[in-house]
């Protein structure tokens, strides 16, 4: 289960990450990643599993698997990161191992596409 502080909950947050974030996808899922202005905030994540994936039972199974896979990966994301994982129809027939490898590859791809952030030091200019 994702901790409450690590969840995207509002539609505006999802829309912002999907519209403005960097995207990287595989055959079973697409990851959208955005660094928000508050870089002291913990990374947050949300899932989108539409009816195209399958019926309610299948969608909930895919959601549970993705949520379980996301929890340990949040710690490796930079502070202030917002992630939306969108499941595609082939995710319904995928194993957890296949979803995990697609999630890892998509996260790496989205992180690579982020603009380089300037390094700031704590001292005076």
From TrEMBL:
Gene Ontology molecular function: any one: ribonuclease P activity
UniProt catalytic activity: Endonucleolytic cleavage of RNA, removing 5'-extranucleotides from tRNA precursor
EC number: 3.1.26.5
Family: Belongs to the RnpA family.
UniProt organism field: Pseudonocardia oceani
Reported function: RNaseP catalyzes the removal of the 5'-leader sequence from pre-tRNA to produce the mature 5'-terminus. It can also cleave other RNA substrates such as 4.5S RNA. The protein component plays an auxiliary but essential role in vivo by binding to the 5'-leader sequence and broadening the substrate specificity of the ribozyme.
Subunit composition and interactions: Consists of a catalytic RNA component (M1 or rnpB) and a protein subunit.
NCBIfam families: rnpA
InterPro entries hit by this protein: RNase_P
Enzyme class: hydrolase
Coiled-coil ranges (or none): none
A Pfam family the protein falls into: Ribonuclease_P
Protein name: Ribonuclease P protein component
HAMAP family found in the cross-reference section: RNase_P (MF_00227)
Keywords, comma-separated and alphabetical: Endonuclease, Hydrolase, Nuclease, RNA-binding, tRNA processing
């Amino acid at each position: 289960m994702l901790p409450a502080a690590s969840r995207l909950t509002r539609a505006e947050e999802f829309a912002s990450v999907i519209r403005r974030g960097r995207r990287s996808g595989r055959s079973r899922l697409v990851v959208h990643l955005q660094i928000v202005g508050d870089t002291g905030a913990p990374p947050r994540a949300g899932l989108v599993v539409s009816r195209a994936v399958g019926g309610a039972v299948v969608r909930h199974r895919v959601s549970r698997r993705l949520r379980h896979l996301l929890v340990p990966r949040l710690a490796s994301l930079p502070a202030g990161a917002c992630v939306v994982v969108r499941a595609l129809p082939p995710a319904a027939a995928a194993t957890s191992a296949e979803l995990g490898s697609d999630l890892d590859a998509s996260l790496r791809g989205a992180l690579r596409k982020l603009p380089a952030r300037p390094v700031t030091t704590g001292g005076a200019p």
